[in-house]
Write a structure and sequence with these properties.
By secondary structure, the chain is an all-alpha fold. Helix content is 79%, strand content 0%.
Length: 421
């Protein structure tokens, strides 16, 4: 089963950039939590902690597309190194302003700088895979599955690590560890120039940068938005369910079970040679996620909730992997990192309203009723996924072609899809 993974990891430098990419991605699941743990411990205010954490998240989402565009235009080595240093300084500034009891606005500014400077490492790693495996479309599918597994690993282990450090050692230890690992991992990734995609700076200056198929990408971003709302709302609902059951300490393990289901499904997706394309898998994955979340509205116990989350989690990775594969099919290679950053922005944009709506439902009708929000959010993602044929036709509906597209063919294909939209 693991032969597919070993085959792609044998490519020179592939295992190293995937491993350093894992370390570099630790901040995505830890920094916002580290901010909450630090500020709530030092000030006693969860409201302030949540507000500063929200500034960090929003700043990161606002600049995600810019980071992707810079990586495409100037190359990852030149784009990643400067901004990750700023990220590190900003994270330390958050710790410093809180420790010094500086004016609150300084902590807000430091959090905004930290979020704005965190690059889209996941998009960069996937772009490297697309470049390294440009003659192996089946291998790209496996690589995207591998990176989905890496994402889930980060979301399983990262919050546990940060929470233990912040509660058992020092309130700032979790955040500092998240920042340091992010800086070290990203600098290590940037140093690997041999596997990075070629920069498109010269072509962009000459005015020949290929067009982005915005109509098709917009539909896929709506899918991503729905998925983000599922993640944000389900997390709040699960924490509330555990608290109402008198077992809030089990909220983390419950969410870990959810991520574990997604991780296991991601491993399987990468090992299978699919006869249907990513568009079909994305549609059915989004629909399966919606259906699997529905029973959680009425589950009566923690055990059944854990089982339901495990099953629902198994629909996450297949949907995310196939949506990213669709982006790889429609986006020009020279703008692939930017296109993936758009998808990540859509997902981040869905998390906040999803969490807010779920919280409102918890306050008004209880934790069980809050699971209605991820069901509705999943329906939004599914509706968008099933509408993709209206924009992109049958592109991505069939399995991988026997012969891969050449880079120029992909540019032409992206332009044709855009014109069709």
């Amino acid at each position: 089963m693991l032969t597919s993974y070993s085959r792609i990891l044998r490519h020179p430098g592939a295992g190293l950039f995937s491993l350093t990419g894992l370390v570099a991605r630790i901040p995505i699941s830890t920094v916002s939590l580290g901010i909450v743990l630090l500020i709530s411990a030092e000030t006693g205010s969860y409201g302030l902690a949540g507000a500063i954490s929200a500034v960090y998240v929003l700043a990161n989402a606002a600049l995600a597309i810019v980071h992707g565009r810079l990586a495409d235009r100037f190359g990852q080595a030149r784009a990643l190194a400067p901004v990750i240093v700023v990220f590190g300084l900003g994270g330390l500034a958050v710790v410093g302003t809180v420790a010094a009891d500086a004016p609150r606005w300084t902590t807000y500014v430091a959090a905004a700088v930290t979020g704005a400077a965190l690059p889209q490492v996941g998009s960069c790693v996937r772009a490297r895979w697309t470049h390294v495996l440009r003659d192996d479309p089946r291998g790209i599918q496996t690589a995207y599955a591998l990176e989905a597994v890496v994402d889930e690993s980060v979301f399983i282990t990262g919050p546990i690590l940060v929470t233990v450090l912040a509660t058992a050692w020092h309130p700032a230890a979790g955040l500092v560890t998240a920042v340091v690992t992010g800086v070290a991992g990203t600098l290590a990734l940037a140093a690997q120039r041999r596997t990075q995609p070629p920069a498109s700076g010269g072509r962009a200056v000459a005015g020949t940068r290929p067009a982005m198929p915005w109509a098709a990408l917009g539909i896929l971003t709506l899918v991503s938005f729905g998925l983000g709302a599922v993640f944000g709302s389900a997390e709040v609902a699960t924490v509330a369910f555990a608290e109402h059951a008198g077992a809030k300490v089990w909220a983390g393990p419950l969410l870990a079970v959810w991520a574990l289901g997604s991780l296991a499904a991601g491993v399987v997706v990468g090992a299978v040679h699919w006869r249907v394309g990513p568009a079909v898998r994305m549609r059915w994955g989004a629909l399966a996620l919606t259906v699997a979340m529905a029973p959680l509205v009425v589950v009566p116990s923690m055990v059944l909730l854990a089982l339901g989350l495990l099953v629902a989690g198994a629909a996450i990775s297949p949907t995310v992997i196939s949506s990213m594969a669709m982006v790889q099919k429609i986006a020009p290679p020279s703008r692939l990192t930017e296109a993936m950053a758009v998808m990540h922005t859509g997902m981040a944009a869905g998390i906040a309203p999803g969490a807010a709506l779920a919280g409102w439902c918890v306050d008004g009708w209880g934790a069980g009723a809050a699971y209605v929000v991820p069901v509705v959010a999943g329906a939004v993602a599914a509706a968008a996924a099933w509408s993709t044929p209206l924009v992109v036709g049958d592109l991505g509906s069939r399995g991988e072609p026997a012969e891969p597209y050449a880079p120029d063919d992909l540019d032409d294909l992206a332009v044709r899809v855009d014109e069709k939209a």
